[in-house]
Amino acid sequence: MPDPVVVVGGGIAGIQAATDLAEMGIPVYLIEKSPSLGGRMAQLDKTFPTNDCSTCILAPKITSCYNHDNVTTYTMTELINVEGEPGNFRVRLKKRPRYVNEEKCTGCGDCLDKCPVSIPDEYNMEMSEYGAIHKYQPQAVPNVAAIDPERCLKLTKDKCGVCEKVCNFDAVEYEQKEKKFIVQAASIVYAAGYEGFAGDLVSEYGYKDQDNVVTSLEYERILNAAGPTDGHIVRPTDGEEARRIAFIHCSGSRDRRTDKNYCSSVCCTYSIKHALITKEHLKDTEVDLYYMDIRTFGKGFERYYNRAQETEGVNFIRSRVSEIEAGSQPGDLKLKVTDGDNGFAEEEYDLVVLASGLAPTQEVTDTLQKLKVRTNKYGFIDIDEFNPLSTSRKGIFGCGAVNGPRDIPESVMDASGAAALAGQHAVLDVNDMGVESAGEQEYRVTQNERTRVGVFVCHCGTNIAGVIDVDEVARRAREIPFVEHAEDVKYLCSSDSQELIGDRIEEHNLNRIVVASCTPRTHEPLFMDAIAEAGLNPYLLEMTNIRDQGSWVHKEEPEKATWKAYELVRAGVARVKNALPLERGEVDNIARALIVGGGAAGLTAALELGKLGFPVSLVERETELGGHASKLEHSLEGRPVQPHLERLIKEVREHELIDIYAGHEIKDISGFVGNYKLELIPPIPEEAKKEDDLLEIEGGVVIVATGGQEFEPEEYSYRDSDRVITQLELEEGLGQPNGLPGEAEELEEIYMIQCVGSREEDRPYCSRICCSQALRNAVNLKERNPEAEITILYREMRSYGYYEDLYRQARDLGINFSRYEVENKPRVTAEDNGRVSLQYEEPLSGREITAEPDLLVLAAAILPRDDNLELSQMLKTPLNEDNFFLEAHVKLRPVDSATDGIFLAGLSHGPKNYSESLAQSRAAAGRAASILAREYLLTQATVAEVDEELCIACGDCERVCAYKAIEVNEEEDVAEVNRVLCKGCGNCTGVCRPHAVDLHGFMNQQIIDEIETLLAEDVSELAKSGGV
Amino acid sequence: MNKEFKQTIKGRPGGENLSLCYSCGSCTATCPVSEQVESFNPRLIIKKSLLGFQEEVLSGEEIWQCIQCRRCVSACPQNVRFADIVRVLRELAVEEEYYQKDLEANLDDFDKKVLRFRLESLEKVLTGDKDFSDIELKAGGD
Amino acid sequence: MATARKEKQEQQKEFDPKIIAFLCNWCSYAAADLAGSSRLQYPSNIRTIRIPCTGRLNPLLVIKALNKGADGILVSGCHPGDCHYIDGNYYARRRFTMLKDLLEFSGVEPERLNFTWCSAAEGRRFAEIVRKVVDRVESVGPWQGFLSEPDVVAEKEAGEIEDGEFL
Predict the structure, then answer these.
(1) I need a surface site. Which of A262, A830, A884, C119 has the fewest CB within 10 A?
(2) pLDDT by residue (tens digit) across C106-130?
(3) Is A52 strand, coil or helix?
(4) Would an 8 Å CB–CB cutoff place A337 in contact with chain B?
(5) In this predicted structure, which of A134-138, A199-203, C87-91 has the lowest mean pLDDT?
(6) Among A210, A101, A83, residue whose Cα is nearest residue A145
């Protein structure tokens, strides 16, 4: 067993890092300060740019992390200090008392309404209240209550004690004390997250004085259907629907007065999200966004911005708001703004939302100092751009917003990358991963037995029994055909009840179980374990939800609720009697990674995997390694790139586990996760080629790191004049003598034009790096020749994150900045004397400006490679609209492709800078390792199966399957399911005309019997219908 | 256009931060003169100075309309210090002899209006009248 | 015909419709759970069948339910774009649109066939949907089976879609 890793922070970054490490077979201690996992993401309503429901996508991820065999979660726990070295850290932790026993509390909620104290609900940003004993959030994980010791009457005044009295599990423990303990760890992943800040809100934007000024996180809760206003967009002061809403970008960010000159990177896009969701809720509400530059630089964000602007009627106003005052009506707000390119204006609104930025909490900065991890001037972890995710202290890695302002997918990438690095210290034993394997447990053979169903009806204290007559349900259940035993139990989820189920299985020789209680979404794994413990195959279980969808929602109709519960139990029996014992299959896994592309991204992924102990085959079509990066002169921080790249190449070449296939082209790719094959064409001259020259390499995963290419501009006289070059050409030219038309020191007037080929109708995406690249190149030129006049013509200056400091430095050096509108682009003509002349309209002054620059530099778009399409067809994994490789999920699976076992890194996935490519490559290595660490891959049990007799090989199933998990075998004329790839969605089953495909766990016959039973008038009729 | 103009301004005490401006408009949005005089736009004055429209900036009335309340200085997220830049521009206007007699007359007139405006506003405040809509400040001669 | 309608109204007084709801596991079923944990009350007429994804729903299962006497059907999945299985809900929408047209043509009132979306955070919306679906089904009375007189049906306005709530 490898040594454990400590992950600090239970938000999305920590959850991802913990899950990846656990999947590599490494034990993880997950430390969370609050009473529940989930972090900031759990507070969000929806996520950009798809407007996915945040809870919907996050909750399954939290649950699988929390339930993972290799993860031990400590909530309400903080890190005190760390001693020792990498490989042998002693991590001192402090667990605050919860005053509720986590083992005993079942989350039934009996105590929650009884608490006489009301305190502000932290999860709802203090816009609603809950009791001193409360669940941190409705979907808390662990699903356990906690007591606020400062407000609890028992703990403060030794009065009350009602929660202890009503608790049926003796879970309330007022005597709990703070616990300090030490865990040993090989390495540490720090993912403590951020807090929202909005600068000096008191004086400037009236946040404290004006109740109708809210922060973006508060607005998330207002929008949320489970939030304090049930998702109605109303004003806090009077509950009136908001008819005019202003969103103020950069509230606190890009502001020297707050000591936060950086750009928080996410606020532009989340404000657009807020605007779009607002419009969805209230079509006629006026939505005005006040901004300085719209920075929608992420993948798919520009389209999102265009949609808001063009079709959803959101108003974008280029102005920073100077002040917010009380408006003419009570509760209204008056904003002082600059009206477009004109002068002063005042506008009134019902509600103002401040786009608050991202900052580390003081506590995080202090903790980092205690850990001896260097922080930057803003208090974030000081990250080396050539070594992202590492910190100044060996063995401690950062991920998520502690590394700087970033969005969810970047945090997830960070997390998988940090897992790859942290895992290297845990010393993986590739031959003994200790990862779960199927078929370890033998279950009783039930196939030939008479069907004997056991029914267990839960009281859930009074939660169910207070409304539903559970005794009556159990009594009637005994009359249902095939039911051998039925009884009602006070709390089925308690550990003694689990044993009771086991005893009854033995006693009555039960071979099917129906549990009538709460929701299977949270409790099915528990009851599956319980019956597996008793030797019964866990898939012979059916849960009927008589609490969440029964007693809780039909309180006023106890009789009907009882009858409904009985009907559901009857249907559950009908369904479970058809259930088959299922097992997860095992598929061989080849412990080798295949990496396509030998640029910086591919090299980094290869090296990290090699360091983790996995063999790698790296394929590069060129004879030289290095790719696009070999053209880069300096990084965005101004450091030379080539020494880093050369060192990287050397390390990869010298690594014993990495085989390099340079100069090899890929002819074909086949297989699936666990078993991919690449057919390579070796570098042999065309005439000497023979059929059997082809080389075949095999591996369990594929990492696509094929890079991108620079757009060749068609406008601005690029082809007509030598004085017009691209930013990349400028960079190359700066690195070599005579690389530019004239020496860099002598160029007096230089113009740069941004967004050449990007953000246009036929290429509606932002190339992300060009603004920072132009700033860096301009600063370099200015440093070589301080007299040079450099002017950057831009549409929006997208110097996100710390690049805002670079923007400021450029302005400070006297570099000129002028905006241009896309409808009115600068006009460039090549003159006969080889020079160029340039004209543009400066929008603020409205003046026509002319120049004859010595050099014109174009920020050419980053394009996907031309052969992406071909590669994507070979890999059977899709591209996005812009022909970059598409990730499996834009938020939570940014490194995975839609096809299992294929991961993405670098420019093949979309525009990103050198440092970001390195981080994503480390992430790809982390994700790949989580698969490579397994000797066998386990398939899901509830997968589709084809009845060969019925299949007509029409191919409908193949067409609708999003996972390429079912395909028609042309030779046999029958569809075949790949159990490894099948996710059990049942789309094939839904479309199959001859009913040849069926889905285990949700079989046609099960659902039909369920329908018939639910609709049968009584049991006797049931018997007649053949339903039973 | 005079490309040296911004360097000249930056070389004077108070003008150092001119090129830090990123044209957000906070100065204009907070300016009590802009509130009353539509043509007075600090953001535009800075932009024109950066672009080198020396004559237009120095010979115009705008630089003399600033009342030096310094609200723009506290509102600016980049510490550009417009009120100080205006002082530099005034110095330059005098030095470079852009300051003419007829301008003086106009400004005198403007100053009187500002004074009257202040008095009327003050009177309203003192009498508890919150309706300011009938008093108005207009630039130039009327 | 008039008497037929009168009879129908008579029955409606004590009409307690049975509605089969097919809910996808990841969004709508979760919304139903959230309605519960928020203690939102809705009529007890629905009988939920949990399916992994609305894409699993073979149209024949809906016909089966009607054949066995369900007075109404509710199919609810994830919002467009939110599908846990990438695009299953889009296929479901297409299938249901076709099915609904076919069933309407065969004499099933549109009020009986309801397709909608609901996210895991929309407990309130789920309760609201159930109330509306029950109202809609009650408004057309008990389901008489596929052999009911066609002209009773013809009178109904085709395709009444309220606020785009239901397909």
Answers:
(1) A830
(2) 889 999 999 999 988 788 899 999 9
(3) strand
(4) yes
(5) A199-203
(6) A101
Strand A847-851, strand A836-842: pairing: antiparallel
Q: Which residues contact A628 (CB under 8 A, 6 or more apart)?
A: A599, A600, A707, A708, A709, A907
pLDDT of res. A1024: 39
d(CA B93, CA A780): 35
Q: Of C40, C41, C85, which is closest to A987 when you measure between CB atoms? A: C85
Q: Tell me the HSE value of B118 on the side-chain side, using a 13 A CA sphere.
A: 9
CA atoms within 13 A on the CB side of A777: 33
- Whole-angstrom distance, CA of residue A845 vs CA of residue B51: 9
Predicted confidence at residue C154, as pLDDT, reads: 44
Biggest CA pair distance of chain B = 52
Q: Could you give the CA distance from residue A665 to residue A797 in angstroms, rounded to a whole number?
A: 40
Please choose, from the candidates A169, A29, A32, A150, the residue with its C-alpha nearest in 3D space to the C-alpha of residue A102: A169
Query: Read out DSSP for A132-193?
Result: SEE-SSTT-SS---EE-TTT-HHHHHS---HHHHH-TT--B-TT---EEEEEEESEEEE---
Question: CB–CB of A524/A513 below 8 Å?
Answer: no
Mark yes or no for CB contact C81/A1015 under 8 Å. Answer: no
Of C44, C56, C92, the CB nearest to A564: C44
Summarised one tens digit per residue, pLDDT across range A839-889 is 999 999 999 999 999 999 999 999 999 999 999 989 988 889 899 999 988
Which residues on neighbouring strands pair with residue A836, listed in sequence order?
A830
Superfamily of domain A1-96+178-194+360-427: FAD/NAD(P)-binding domain (3.50.50.60)
Domains of chain B with bracketed CATH: 5-99 (1.10.1060.10)
Q: Which residues of A touch B34 (CB under 8 A)?
A: 343-344
For residue range A123-134, what is the model confidence (pLDDT) as tens digits? 999 999 999 999
Which residue from C minimizes the CA distance to A555?
Answer: C41
A318 interfaces chain B, CB cutoff of 8 Å: yes
Structure tokens that stand for A713 in this block = 């501009």
Count the Cβ atoms, other than its own, within 10 Å of residue A622: 15
At residue A857, the 3 state secondary structure works out as strand
Structure tokens at A498: 């689990």
Residue of A585, A588, A584 lying closest to A675 (CA atoms): A588
pLDDT for C86 beyond 90 = no
Give A254's contacts in chain B (Cβ within 8 Å): 77
Separation between Cα atoms, residue A432 and residue A441, nearest integer Å: 19
Identify the structural domains of chain C with CATH numbers, from first to last: 16-154 (3.40.50)
Identify whether the C-beta of residue C53 lies closer than 8 Å to the C-beta of residue C93.
no
CA–CA separation, A227 vs A235, rounded Å?
A: 14
Measure the CA–CA gap between A723 and A753, rounded to whole angstroms: 13
Write out the residue limits of the CATH 3.50.50.60 domain(s) in chain A.
Answer: 1-96+178-194+360-427, 195-359, 588-707+865-937, 710-863
The sign of the CA dihedral A154, A160, A161, A163 is negative
- How many CB atoms sit inside 10 A of residue A311's CB? 9
Which residue, among A905, A897, A856, has the nearest Cα to A747 in the 3D structure? A856
Instruction: For residues B73 and A57, give the distance between their C-alpha atoms in angstroms, rounded to a whole number.
Output: 46
Q: Whole-angstrom Cα distance, residue A576 to residue C11?
A: 35
Q: Give the Cα separation of C140 and C112 in Å (integer).
A: 8
Q: CB–CB of A352/A246 below 8 Å?
A: yes
CATH code reported for the domain at A97-176? 3.30.70
Q: What is the CA angle B128-B133-B135, rounded to 5?
A: 90
Q: Chain B within 8 Å of A338 (Cβ-Cβ)?
A: yes
DSSP annotation of A549: I
Q: Tokens standing for A315? A: 């108003």
Smallest CA–CA separation between B55 and chain A, in Å? Answer: 14
